[in-house]
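Session log. Operator J.P. requested a structure for one protein chain; no other inputs attached. Running the standard single-chain path with token output.
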Amino acid sequence: MALHFCAAEDTGTPLHINLVSPLDFQVVQRQTIAAGHLVVAGSMVAESKDTPLPDKLEARVTGHSLSGELPGQWQPLPCDARIAAFRGELTLPAGGWYRLEVRAFYKGVLVASVVVEHVGLGEIFVVAGQSNSANYDEEKQSTKTGLVVAFDGTQWQLAHDPEPGAGGKKGSFMPAFGDEMAAQFHVPIGIVATGIGSTSVREWLPAGTRLTLLPPLTRNVVTTGDGQWEVSGEIFANFTTRMKQLGTNGFRAVLWHQGESDAHQADPTRTSPGELYRQDLEQLIRDSRQVIGWDAPWFVAQVSYHNPSDTASPDIRAAQKAVCDDDLAFPGPDTDTLTEDMREKNGTGIHLSARGQQAHAHLWFEKVSAWLEQQPGETEKVK
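Structure written below.
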């Protein structure tokens, strides 16, 4: 994973610390409701081959946690004066923002130090699907708590729309959802946005998956013969790569919001029958879990809305419900209920208005927070 280094403080010595973990504004998924593990990793960079590497490394974390102010004690990090790279792990209570300091010594003398001003142990959610899971809504939103951040695969930043990593250049529900979660659980919230506008569930499947009918758009389809097609797999590869970057149990859940491009298409040969939608989504969930190496929880929304004269597809909605009934996912919100002034273009559009974005965020908050509040101290074995 390509990462941006934190800038080292100048100690007047020809030795510097480059941290690759954590990055500024990074959220680490807490492993229990109360605590988690922060990886501190990087390398020592000497300006000359004659400059000795440090013989002692230590770190401390300060700030306010769920259980009160951190003691701020210095803790040792693994260090070998023959090796530039290091990696250690600190167990911390959930909370943030925290301030991390790392410093290096050689024969008792401070030779380098570095500071990361914003580090959190909280909740991370991967958001996937089509345009209403991405940045196509009416109004750009920003985090109001300052506790919601987005990860684009390279760096973390405050969650101001458009969210990095997802399609579109306008607004989303994600900052408002994160703010509600942060206010409820008093921890920073990380968003990994991966949604792509106008995509069918078929386009999210792994490379080489055979298609029996074409999606509305064919940008992610490969012709392999007369009337024979396969999925290119580019979306699936990017989706699973983004999840793998977070590590095993490195996020809380996938929030899936998609279905419009499979329902009621102008060309009926591009409309996905409900049973096929169910099979495709279940394959996506199973195959993605296999690739990332753990059974990440999924939430699946009820979504098929197009316009005021086409507010829902019973076939697609039944398929989405069936995926949850099959215990492959938890039920997400019913966003087909967001009609009239909840939609853009004075209620005629498929995307959400500013009011609809807030309502969408709250619907997700209700589903996810209720589930999270039921989790025991240790992360429950998930579906």
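Operator note: Residues 1-11, 378-383 have pLDDT under 50 and may be disordered.
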